[in-house]
Amino acid sequence: MTAPTTTRRRIGRVAVAATAITVIVTGMGYAVASGLEDPEALGPGDVTVEIDIEYSRFVPGNLTVVEGTRVRFLVVNGDPIHHEFITGDADVHLRHANGTEAEHPSVPGEVSVEPNGTAITTFTFEKPGVYEFACHLPGHYAYGMRGEIEVVPAA
Ligand SMILES: [Cu+2]
Hints:
5-stranded mixed β-sheet; 4-stranded mixed β-sheet; 20% helix; globular; disordered N terminus
């Protein structure tokens, strides 16, 4: 793929897309949207994004998708401790920040990740805006285990 290199910001965004493509190369068999209309944003359609957890941080820490995109998050925990990946609107984060849910088995956009384990959750970003993703296990959010997904209007 030819990466636009006009701005530093673009380079960062293309790196996110390249991460998703890596999923295919490593033989996981996930479909990844190609031919991005906006090189800075993932989607529209279905995309798979790998989010790595390293030392209680999400990598990448932010990404951009087009509204309506269904993102399949492949969450790879490189830490020897439990984490979770929660995304959604502000109400979702408030509920988890104040709650005590230990497991997140089947809610879209919410999944627990075993130590050194991998988990998948899928979430459709219906409306433009900024959505947070985070781990709300005690102390993790405060430590910095959070990121942002910017949802941009479809062209
Ligand atoms: Cu965590």
